[in-house]
Amino acid sequence: MTKTDGLVGLGPAVWSVDAGDTIAELVWSPTDERLAVGCSGGDVVVFDKAGLVIDRRLRHPSGTSCVTWFGGDVASGGVDGWVDVGGHRERLGGWVSALASSEPGLGVAHGRHISILGGPSSERLPASIAQIRWATGPGVTNRLIACGHGYVTEFDATLRHRDDANLVWGGSVEQVDWSPDGRWAAASTRGTTNYLWLRPTAEDGRVIDPQVHVHVLPCPASDGRLVRFDPTGRHLGIATSGGLAVFDLDDVHPIAGPPGRLLPLFCRVHAFSWCPDAPVAVLGVATDSGGGGLLLVRCDEHAAPVGVVDLGSAVTGIAWSSGSDLVAAACADGTLHALPRIEDWDWRASTGEWDATDQL
């Protein structure tokens, strides 16, 4: 049962199911309304838009670590080094920590290497890989980004040519993101150091140029996996132990970097997304009392919480459907909820008190 604040911008859950296991990752198909869920016990489950199970199989007996979609099929990786794509299986060396799907192929991060499934493999990287992503944005042509302990690096589709970002040392880089207009890139570490830099303007759409100045954004400690640009491209959000840090990219000093604010939160953040068409952060949170749900925070000049959804358990994963009309929330107790977005919600008229989590 879900309870929603009237200003939240989300309606009550249209369906809720129990996955029967801890959910490691969830992702909607980019071409239709199927939702793939990877479970820590090894199952991969596919739901339709109504929440009905289309397929459930034990693909990774040692545990599923990541899922994505590739060529219309679910692709999953396991801690045992196996990759499964629609029933086709291939084993690679090392724990499969991340998958990235694009036209050039399925990128696989395993141990300290990256491979294109059925294709080339990279040189050995300095440390285990936390994340890989195919670059997106104007002019981008087949660039694969990887990050890990002490590095952010960029490969071409052959995995032979590599460029490294010029980072000031700050620990293990867990995630990289870039603005919708392709202008900015950011990275976050497991600690207090975060990075922001202008993407090169070259026609090949690169994300990294070793000569580009990298701004260091100090924040309270985070796990490094909660950095996101908002859909307008103006705001960069980083969920930290002290709250939500928001940086304004409309006013970036060439040396000092962008101005930032720390918006206080009275809960722990485990997942982070944005509303598809507004600078409103959607946070998966946990409370000290053992509850949790979704907290929506307006992040413009009138920053304030604008709604709470009580789901009864900490939310550990958030995924928007391909049409952005449904958001799926995965909870620590193994439940999965799909909530509809209210399209005519006037977020500019919404405001609230900072300690909004007393409703959870």
Outline:
The chain is 0% helix and 50% strand. It contains no helices and 32 strands.
Characterize the structure shown.
With 360 residues, the chain is mainly β. It has no helices and 32 strands. It has strands at 3-4, 15-18, 23-28, 35-39, 43-47, 53-58, 64-70, 73-78, 82-85, 88-91, 96-102, 105-110, 113-116, 129-134, 143-148, 151-156, 162-164, 173-178, 184-189, 191-198, 214-222, 227-229, 235-240, 243-248, 260-263, 268-274, 280-286, 292-298, 304-310, 315-320, 326-331, 335-340. The strands form 8 sheets. The chain has a 5-stranded antiparallel beta sheet with strand order 1-29-28-27-26, with no helix packed on it. A 4-stranded antiparallel beta sheet has the order 2-32-31-30, with no helix packed on it. The protein is globular, with a radius of gyration of 20 Å. The two termini are 13 Å apart.
